[in-house]
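[Discussion] Sanity-checking designs against the backbone

I'm trying to build intuition for which residues belong where. Below is a C-alpha coordinate string of 328 positions. I'd appreciate it if someone posts a full sequence so I can compare it with mine line by line.
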Protein backbone atom coordinates (compact mmCIF):
# COMPACT_ATOMS: atom_id res chain seq x y z
CA UNK A 1 0.00 0.00 0.00
CA UNK A 2 1.32 3.40 -0.99
CA UNK A 3 1.41 6.36 1.40
CA UNK A 4 2.58 9.96 1.37
CA UNK A 5 4.70 11.68 3.99
CA UNK A 6 2.71 14.67 5.20
CA UNK A 7 4.85 15.80 8.11
CA UNK A 8 8.42 15.47 9.32
CA UNK A 9 10.08 16.06 12.70
CA UNK A 10 13.55 15.07 13.90
CA UNK A 11 13.04 11.37 14.59
CA UNK A 12 9.46 10.84 13.52
CA UNK A 13 7.24 11.48 10.50
CA UNK A 14 3.54 11.31 9.71
CA UNK A 15 2.39 9.16 6.84
CA UNK A 16 -0.98 9.50 5.10
CA UNK A 17 -2.25 6.11 3.91
CA UNK A 18 -4.64 5.38 1.07
CA UNK A 19 -7.44 4.53 3.50
CA UNK A 20 -7.22 8.03 4.97
CA UNK A 21 -5.44 7.06 8.17
CA UNK A 22 -2.39 8.88 9.43
CA UNK A 23 0.45 6.78 10.77
CA UNK A 24 3.38 7.91 12.85
CA UNK A 25 6.60 6.30 11.57
CA UNK A 26 10.33 6.49 12.12
CA UNK A 27 11.85 9.28 10.08
CA UNK A 28 14.29 7.85 7.54
CA UNK A 29 15.33 11.18 6.08
CA UNK A 30 11.86 11.63 4.62
CA UNK A 31 10.70 14.86 3.00
CA UNK A 32 7.14 16.13 2.90
CA UNK A 33 5.31 14.88 -0.17
CA UNK A 34 7.53 11.83 -0.64
CA UNK A 35 5.66 8.70 -1.70
CA UNK A 36 6.61 5.59 0.29
CA UNK A 37 5.59 1.97 0.62
CA UNK A 38 3.53 1.81 3.80
CA UNK A 39 4.40 -1.84 4.31
CA UNK A 40 8.13 -1.07 4.45
CA UNK A 41 7.93 1.64 7.11
CA UNK A 42 8.46 1.21 10.85
CA UNK A 43 5.11 2.11 12.37
CA UNK A 44 5.02 3.64 15.80
CA UNK A 45 1.32 4.46 16.17
CA UNK A 46 -1.86 4.46 14.08
CA UNK A 47 -4.11 7.45 14.42
CA UNK A 48 -7.84 6.96 13.89
CA UNK A 49 -10.37 9.70 13.67
CA UNK A 50 -12.38 7.95 16.39
CA UNK A 51 -9.97 9.28 19.01
CA UNK A 52 -10.13 12.95 18.18
CA UNK A 53 -8.36 14.19 21.29
CA UNK A 54 -5.52 11.74 20.95
CA UNK A 55 -5.10 12.60 17.29
CA UNK A 56 -5.06 16.33 17.98
CA UNK A 57 -2.52 15.86 20.78
CA UNK A 58 -0.25 13.80 18.57
CA UNK A 59 -0.38 16.29 15.73
CA UNK A 60 0.36 19.13 18.10
CA UNK A 61 3.30 17.22 19.58
CA UNK A 62 4.71 16.47 16.15
CA UNK A 63 4.08 19.99 14.91
CA UNK A 64 3.07 18.52 11.57
CA UNK A 65 0.28 20.81 10.45
CA UNK A 66 -1.27 17.96 8.46
CA UNK A 67 -4.39 20.03 7.99
CA UNK A 68 -2.44 22.06 5.39
CA UNK A 69 -1.94 18.91 3.37
CA UNK A 70 -5.65 18.78 2.57
CA UNK A 71 -6.02 22.49 1.87
CA UNK A 72 -6.15 23.16 -1.90
CA UNK A 73 -3.42 25.58 -2.86
CA UNK A 74 -3.71 25.18 -6.63
CA UNK A 75 -6.43 24.26 -9.10
CA UNK A 76 -5.94 22.33 -12.33
CA UNK A 77 -8.56 21.70 -14.99
CA UNK A 78 -8.36 19.47 -18.05
CA UNK A 79 -10.78 19.96 -20.95
CA UNK A 80 -11.09 17.82 -24.06
CA UNK A 81 -14.73 17.00 -24.18
CA UNK A 82 -14.44 15.35 -20.78
CA UNK A 83 -13.93 18.19 -18.32
CA UNK A 84 -12.22 17.43 -15.01
CA UNK A 85 -11.04 19.65 -12.20
CA UNK A 86 -8.36 18.75 -9.65
CA UNK A 87 -7.63 20.33 -6.29
CA UNK A 88 -3.92 20.25 -5.54
CA UNK A 89 -2.14 20.97 -2.28
CA UNK A 90 1.04 22.93 -1.69
CA UNK A 91 3.09 19.79 -2.40
CA UNK A 92 1.51 19.36 -5.86
CA UNK A 93 -0.41 16.30 -4.67
CA UNK A 94 -4.01 15.72 -5.70
CA UNK A 95 -6.38 15.99 -2.75
CA UNK A 96 -9.64 15.96 -4.70
CA UNK A 97 -11.00 15.43 -8.20
CA UNK A 98 -14.39 15.89 -9.79
CA UNK A 99 -15.93 15.51 -13.20
CA UNK A 100 -17.43 18.78 -14.40
CA UNK A 101 -19.54 17.08 -17.08
CA UNK A 102 -20.78 13.53 -17.71
CA UNK A 103 -17.78 12.57 -19.82
CA UNK A 104 -15.49 13.83 -17.09
CA UNK A 105 -17.27 11.77 -14.46
CA UNK A 106 -16.96 8.72 -16.67
CA UNK A 107 -13.18 9.18 -17.05
CA UNK A 108 -12.76 9.49 -13.28
CA UNK A 109 -14.76 6.32 -12.72
CA UNK A 110 -12.49 4.46 -15.09
CA UNK A 111 -9.39 5.80 -13.34
CA UNK A 112 -10.80 5.36 -9.80
CA UNK A 113 -10.67 8.61 -7.86
CA UNK A 114 -9.23 6.91 -4.79
CA UNK A 115 -6.25 5.81 -6.87
CA UNK A 116 -5.64 9.38 -8.00
CA UNK A 117 -5.57 11.04 -4.60
CA UNK A 118 -2.18 11.81 -3.09
CA UNK A 119 -0.46 11.29 -6.44
CA UNK A 120 1.57 13.97 -8.17
CA UNK A 121 -0.61 16.19 -10.31
CA UNK A 122 1.53 15.66 -13.44
CA UNK A 123 1.06 11.89 -13.12
CA UNK A 124 -2.69 12.25 -12.61
CA UNK A 125 -3.14 14.58 -15.60
CA UNK A 126 -1.08 12.23 -17.77
CA UNK A 127 -3.27 9.29 -16.68
CA UNK A 128 -6.38 11.34 -17.46
CA UNK A 129 -5.28 12.20 -21.00
CA UNK A 130 -4.12 8.63 -21.67
CA UNK A 131 -7.56 7.34 -20.67
CA UNK A 132 -9.26 9.94 -22.88
CA UNK A 133 -7.06 8.87 -25.81
CA UNK A 134 -7.90 5.22 -25.12
CA UNK A 135 -11.60 6.00 -25.36
CA UNK A 136 -11.21 7.84 -28.66
CA UNK A 137 -11.56 11.47 -27.61
CA UNK A 138 -8.33 12.46 -29.38
CA UNK A 139 -8.61 10.55 -32.63
CA UNK A 140 -10.54 13.18 -34.61
CA UNK A 141 -8.79 15.86 -36.62
CA UNK A 142 -8.80 19.21 -34.87
CA UNK A 143 -8.95 17.77 -31.36
CA UNK A 144 -7.57 19.89 -28.57
CA UNK A 145 -6.64 19.69 -24.90
CA UNK A 146 -6.89 22.71 -22.66
CA UNK A 147 -5.01 22.68 -19.35
CA UNK A 148 -5.60 25.58 -16.99
CA UNK A 149 -3.87 26.21 -13.67
CA UNK A 150 -4.63 28.70 -10.93
CA UNK A 151 -2.84 29.58 -7.72
CA UNK A 152 -2.42 32.47 -5.31
CA UNK A 153 1.04 32.97 -6.74
CA UNK A 154 0.71 33.45 -10.48
CA UNK A 155 4.35 32.45 -11.08
CA UNK A 156 3.64 29.06 -9.49
CA UNK A 157 0.58 28.67 -11.71
CA UNK A 158 2.58 29.46 -14.86
CA UNK A 159 5.34 27.02 -13.94
CA UNK A 160 2.80 24.29 -13.25
CA UNK A 161 0.99 24.97 -16.54
CA UNK A 162 4.25 24.61 -18.48
CA UNK A 163 5.13 21.38 -16.66
CA UNK A 164 1.69 19.84 -17.28
CA UNK A 165 1.68 20.88 -20.93
CA UNK A 166 5.00 19.10 -21.42
CA UNK A 167 3.75 15.95 -19.69
CA UNK A 168 0.51 15.87 -21.70
CA UNK A 169 2.31 16.51 -24.99
CA UNK A 170 4.38 13.38 -24.38
CA UNK A 171 1.18 11.36 -23.82
CA UNK A 172 -0.42 12.75 -26.99
CA UNK A 173 2.63 11.87 -29.08
CA UNK A 174 2.72 8.37 -27.62
CA UNK A 175 -0.96 7.99 -28.58
CA UNK A 176 -0.21 8.95 -32.21
CA UNK A 177 -2.63 11.86 -31.96
CA UNK A 178 -2.36 15.30 -33.52
CA UNK A 179 -4.35 16.98 -30.77
CA UNK A 180 -3.26 20.51 -29.95
CA UNK A 181 -2.13 20.87 -26.34
CA UNK A 182 -2.58 24.23 -24.62
CA UNK A 183 -1.50 25.20 -21.12
CA UNK A 184 -2.37 28.50 -19.48
CA UNK A 185 -2.37 30.07 -16.04
CA UNK A 186 -5.57 31.86 -15.01
CA UNK A 187 -6.52 34.00 -12.07
CA UNK A 188 -8.41 32.67 -9.05
CA UNK A 189 -11.29 34.97 -9.93
CA UNK A 190 -11.65 33.07 -13.20
CA UNK A 191 -11.96 29.85 -11.17
CA UNK A 192 -14.85 31.31 -9.16
CA UNK A 193 -16.55 32.64 -12.29
CA UNK A 194 -16.26 29.23 -13.96
CA UNK A 195 -17.78 27.48 -10.93
CA UNK A 196 -20.82 29.74 -11.13
CA UNK A 197 -21.28 28.78 -14.79
CA UNK A 198 -20.73 25.09 -14.08
CA UNK A 199 -17.64 24.76 -16.28
CA UNK A 200 -13.87 24.69 -15.81
CA UNK A 201 -11.76 27.87 -15.89
CA UNK A 202 -9.93 26.47 -18.91
CA UNK A 203 -13.11 26.19 -20.98
CA UNK A 204 -14.21 29.64 -19.84
CA UNK A 205 -10.89 30.99 -21.10
CA UNK A 206 -11.48 29.41 -24.50
CA UNK A 207 -15.00 30.86 -24.72
CA UNK A 208 -13.68 34.32 -23.87
CA UNK A 209 -11.14 34.01 -26.71
CA UNK A 210 -13.93 32.93 -29.05
CA UNK A 211 -15.93 36.06 -28.21
CA UNK A 212 -12.88 38.29 -28.67
CA UNK A 213 -12.19 36.76 -32.11
CA UNK A 214 -15.64 37.75 -33.42
CA UNK A 215 -16.17 40.95 -35.40
CA UNK A 216 -19.42 41.35 -33.47
CA UNK A 217 -18.74 40.08 -29.92
CA UNK A 218 -22.17 41.19 -28.68
CA UNK A 219 -23.81 38.68 -31.01
CA UNK A 220 -22.27 35.70 -29.16
CA UNK A 221 -24.13 34.33 -26.16
CA UNK A 222 -21.62 32.81 -23.73
CA UNK A 223 -24.19 30.32 -22.41
CA UNK A 224 -24.58 28.79 -25.89
CA UNK A 225 -20.99 27.52 -25.72
CA UNK A 226 -20.87 26.13 -22.19
CA UNK A 227 -21.62 22.57 -23.32
CA UNK A 228 -19.49 22.64 -26.46
CA UNK A 229 -16.31 20.62 -26.75
CA UNK A 230 -12.84 22.16 -26.95
CA UNK A 231 -12.69 21.09 -30.59
CA UNK A 232 -15.90 22.97 -31.47
CA UNK A 233 -14.82 26.14 -29.65
CA UNK A 234 -11.39 26.11 -31.28
CA UNK A 235 -12.91 25.56 -34.72
CA UNK A 236 -15.27 28.53 -34.41
CA UNK A 237 -12.49 30.74 -33.07
CA UNK A 238 -10.34 29.91 -36.10
CA UNK A 239 -13.20 30.66 -38.48
CA UNK A 240 -13.75 34.05 -36.83
CA UNK A 241 -10.07 34.92 -37.21
CA UNK A 242 -10.05 33.84 -40.86
CA UNK A 243 -13.06 36.06 -41.59
CA UNK A 244 -11.38 38.98 -39.87
CA UNK A 245 -8.28 38.58 -42.01
CA UNK A 246 -10.33 38.48 -45.23
CA UNK A 247 -11.99 41.78 -44.35
CA UNK A 248 -8.73 43.56 -43.69
CA UNK A 249 -7.40 45.90 -46.43
CA UNK A 250 -4.51 44.60 -48.45
CA UNK A 251 -2.37 47.62 -47.61
CA UNK A 252 -0.22 47.68 -44.59
CA UNK A 253 -2.03 49.59 -41.79
CA UNK A 254 -1.54 53.32 -42.31
CA UNK A 255 -0.16 52.81 -45.80
CA UNK A 256 -3.12 54.56 -47.42
CA UNK A 257 -2.04 57.79 -45.73
CA UNK A 258 1.51 57.55 -46.88
CA UNK A 259 2.65 59.45 -50.08
CA UNK A 260 4.23 57.42 -52.80
CA UNK A 261 7.41 59.42 -52.42
CA UNK A 262 9.87 58.91 -49.66
CA UNK A 263 8.97 61.27 -46.74
CA UNK A 264 10.27 64.76 -47.55
CA UNK A 265 10.86 63.83 -51.16
CA UNK A 266 8.25 66.29 -52.37
CA UNK A 267 10.46 69.11 -51.06
CA UNK A 268 13.56 67.85 -52.79
CA UNK A 269 14.52 69.24 -56.27
CA UNK A 270 14.88 66.73 -59.02
CA UNK A 271 18.53 67.67 -59.34
CA UNK A 272 21.15 66.71 -56.88
CA UNK A 273 21.60 69.51 -54.29
CA UNK A 274 23.64 72.42 -55.79
CA UNK A 275 23.48 70.67 -59.11
CA UNK A 276 21.74 73.70 -60.65
CA UNK A 277 24.78 75.82 -59.71
CA UNK A 278 27.26 73.45 -61.16
CA UNK A 279 28.41 73.84 -64.85
CA UNK A 280 28.06 70.89 -67.11
CA UNK A 281 31.80 70.83 -67.56
CA UNK A 282 34.20 69.26 -65.15
CA UNK A 283 35.16 71.78 -62.41
CA UNK A 284 37.73 74.25 -63.78
CA UNK A 285 37.07 73.18 -67.32
CA UNK A 286 35.63 76.59 -68.24
CA UNK A 287 39.11 78.09 -67.70
CA UNK A 288 40.85 75.51 -69.79
CA UNK A 289 41.25 75.93 -73.60
CA UNK A 290 39.87 73.28 -75.79
CA UNK A 291 43.34 72.56 -77.06
CA UNK A 292 45.98 70.64 -75.22
CA UNK A 293 47.79 72.97 -72.77
CA UNK A 294 50.32 75.14 -74.68
CA UNK A 295 48.83 74.16 -78.00
CA UNK A 296 47.68 77.75 -78.73
CA UNK A 297 51.38 78.83 -78.83
CA UNK A 298 52.40 76.06 -81.09
CA UNK A 299 52.25 76.45 -84.93
CA UNK A 300 50.21 74.02 -86.84
CA UNK A 301 53.29 72.94 -88.68
CA UNK A 302 56.03 70.83 -87.31
CA UNK A 303 58.51 73.02 -85.37
CA UNK A 304 60.80 74.87 -87.78
CA UNK A 305 58.64 74.03 -90.70
CA UNK A 306 57.78 77.73 -91.37
CA UNK A 307 61.50 78.40 -92.12
CA UNK A 308 61.78 75.55 -94.49
CA UNK A 309 60.98 75.98 -98.23
CA UNK A 310 58.14 74.03 -99.59
CA UNK A 311 60.45 72.48 -102.13
CA UNK A 312 62.99 69.88 -101.45
CA UNK A 313 66.21 71.50 -100.23
CA UNK A 314 68.23 72.86 -103.16
CA UNK A 315 65.32 72.61 -105.49
CA UNK A 316 65.03 76.46 -105.90
CA UNK A 317 68.54 76.67 -107.50
CA UNK A 318 67.70 74.24 -110.26
CA UNK A 319 66.31 75.88 -113.47
CA UNK A 320 63.10 74.72 -115.01
CA UNK A 321 64.99 73.43 -118.09
CA UNK A 322 68.16 71.39 -118.35
CA UNK A 323 71.50 73.29 -118.15
CA UNK A 324 72.36 72.67 -121.80
CA UNK A 325 69.09 73.97 -123.31
CA UNK A 326 70.40 77.57 -123.80
CA UNK A 327 73.36 76.60 -125.89
CA UNK A 328 73.37 77.29 -129.65
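Best answer:
Here's mine. Compare freely.
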Amino acid sequence: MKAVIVGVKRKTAAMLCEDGSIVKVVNKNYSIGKEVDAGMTTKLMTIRTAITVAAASLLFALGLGTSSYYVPARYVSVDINPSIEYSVNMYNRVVDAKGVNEDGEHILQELNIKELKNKKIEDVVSMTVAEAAKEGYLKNEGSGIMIATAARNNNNAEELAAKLKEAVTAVVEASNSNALVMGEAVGLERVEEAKELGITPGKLNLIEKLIESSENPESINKEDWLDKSVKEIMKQTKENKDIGQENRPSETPGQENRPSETPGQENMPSETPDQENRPSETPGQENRPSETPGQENRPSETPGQENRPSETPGQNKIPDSNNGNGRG
